[in-house]
Design a protein that fits this description.
By secondary structure, the protein is an all-alpha fold. The chain is built from 13 helices and no strands. The longest helix is centred in the last third of the chain and has 42 residues.
């Protein structure tokens, strides 16, 4: 059993991917609680698709795809925030408009570029193919996201539950919301390297959805979300190595399995109480 765990760690590509996966899981896990509590499940999926034109342009111009994706995500967030602040414009409507427009632009750019690279690794993730630069970027973004959430935890908490009270004590819900969207955008970009554009929503939503079935306090939900995400990453990563299955899909399946188990556990527990 010990050899089964240690053997893959001898390879640098496996070690890089595992470290990157754990960092991504930590960032997604700590944001997942706020995403679920704020009712923003759609935002992760929308941003994951909205970064496509940034990826295509990065390849055309010779930049690293994660840099292009990050710029596209930030631009999308600013556009969504600007539309949301317009009177009578709901956030889900703004997300839908930007998501559809950006994704369509990405598809158009793909069709206009001859000999475009295979996008399978972007759509479904390529955790085993992470480069040294990818690793540095992923670690940097993940650490920044985690530190910001910890430092501004109280501000995020207040604005998540009572924007009126936040205004009364001198906070700016709009500014904090913009900042939170940028954190989600940045985390979405690094998560695409792990599970891809198609399944990034699972890392941003399922951990907190699972944790909220088991615990009720937000700090516990966030901590449990991180733990669930990390376990799913490790299981998916080792499964990809030993059984030659897609790591991204396996990670999402593990997360979904945890949710199903937690759901039935909570129902059984509730029935015993009644």
């Amino acid at each position: 059993m010990v050899e089964w765990i240690i053997e893959p760690l001898q390879y640098s590509f496996f070690l890089k991917g595992l470290i990157a996966g754990v960092m991504v899981a930590s960032a997604c896990g700590i944001l997942s609680g706020f995403i679920v509590w704020r009712g923003m499940a759609f935002i992760g999926d929308a941003l994951a698709h909205a970064i496509l034109p940034g990826i295509v342009l990065a390849i055309i111009l010779g930049f690293h795809i994660l840099i292009g994706a990050l710029l596209a995500a930030v631009i999308s967030v600013i556009a969504i925030g600007t539309l949301t602040n317009h009177r009578g414009f709901k956030e889900d409507t703004a997300i839908g408009v930007i998501f559809a427009g950006a994704f369509a632009l990405g598809i158009m750019l793909i069709n206009r570029v001859a000999g475009f690279k295979d996008l399978t690794h972007i759509l479904f993730g390529n955790i085993l193919g992470i480069s040294g630069f990818d690793l540095i970027l992923i670690i940097s973004v993940a650490i920044i996201v985690i530190i910001i959430v910890i430092v501004f935890y109280k501000e995020l908490l207040v604005t998540s539950f009572d924007a009126t009270h936040a205004l009364a004590i001198g906070l700016s819900p709009t500014l904090i919301h913009f900042g939170f969207l940028i954190l989600v955008a940045s985390t979405t970009v690094i998560a695409t390297q792990t599970v891809g554009v198609v399944m990034v929503l699972a890392l941003l939503v399922t951990p907190a959805a699972t944790a909220s079935l088991l615990v009720k306090q937000l700090p516990r939900i966030m901590a449990l979300s991180m733990g669930i995400s990390i376990v799913a990453i490790i299981v998916g990563f080792y499964s990809s190595y030993y059984f030659d299955v897609p790591s991204g899909a396996t990670i999402v399946i593990v997360l979904t399995a945890f949710f199903v188990i937690a759901f039935f556990y909570s129902k059984i527990k509730r029935s015993f109480k009644n």
